[in-house]
Amino acid sequence: MSRPKPIPTGGGFLALAFAVAAIPLLSGCGVSAKGNFDRGKQLFAAKCSTCHALRDAGSTSTVGPNLDAAFGQARAAGMDPETIAGVVKDQVENPRPTTSNPSVSMPAELLSGTDLDDVASYIGEVAGNPKFKGPQLPNLPGALVFSQNNCAGCHTMQAAGASATTGPNLDDVIGKAFLNGKDNLKTPAGIKQAITDPNKTIAPGYPPSVMPQTFGQTITAQDLSALVKFLQQCSGKGASTPACQPATSNKKK
């Protein structure tokens, strides 16, 4: 399940709440060009979710500021999405100098042009917006492990509400045999190896040495077992298996 490595964003939105508070509530001022929402969401997953928490994206990282918290109060006070997007663009275009502390810095030139317009517009629409509830997960322990370890930042999986395209679509590759016909992703052992030693299970079209090599250390044995079970049970079955559908849907049934 090797995938292109997400680019860490650092915490470039240092004291973002203060920056937001310092800007007048210029409703309708059109600070940012309107970007593509869906493309911005995908780019956020690939470029920003490894460091920033954002409810709609299903990201929970605490390396950088939580964007819902950073913008929630300003939005409630009347700040419009275009102004929030403008703040985001300014922070990305003018990051603080990089230091050894990722909570106070962000890589320069992380995004630009249309890519930045799309991400800024997406964040402007969803950050701190109570209308956006984020991915609705199945009531399965492994679904929570999937979310907490930001697997949605790179992979598509319908049952997890994940739609990123940086890495392989798990609905397509889990349960499949490749790499000289070995049962790489057809058994729990094979799926576990793909997570903990990804260079031994490389999906066609993806280079080696790009997926994090540390999940075997950072995910507990119990959580890893739950994640493997969830992937095997629900990959490719999000719409057809009741247990793999969001908990809210299961309750309605």
Labels describing this entry:
253 residues, mainly alpha, Cytochrome Bc1 Complex, Chain D, domain 2, two-stranded antiparallel ribbon, 2 strands, globular, disordered N terminus
State the oligomer: single chain
Number of domains: 2
How many beta-strand elements? 2
- What's the pLDDT, averaged over the residues? 81
Strands ordered across the widest β-sheet: 1-2
Largest sheet: 2 strands, antiparallel
User: Which topology of the largest domain does CATH recognise?
Assistant: Cytochrome Bc1 Complex, Chain D, domain 2
Form type: globular
Any guess at the CATH architecture of the largest domain? Orthogonal Bundle
SS strand fraction: under 5%
Q: What is the radius of gyration computed over CA atoms, rounded to a whole number of angstroms?
A: 19 Å
List the secondary-structure elements in sequence, H or E.
Answer: HHHHHHEEHHHHH
CATH class of the largest domain: Mainly Alpha
List the uncertain runs.
1-15, 24-32
Helix proportion range? 25-40%
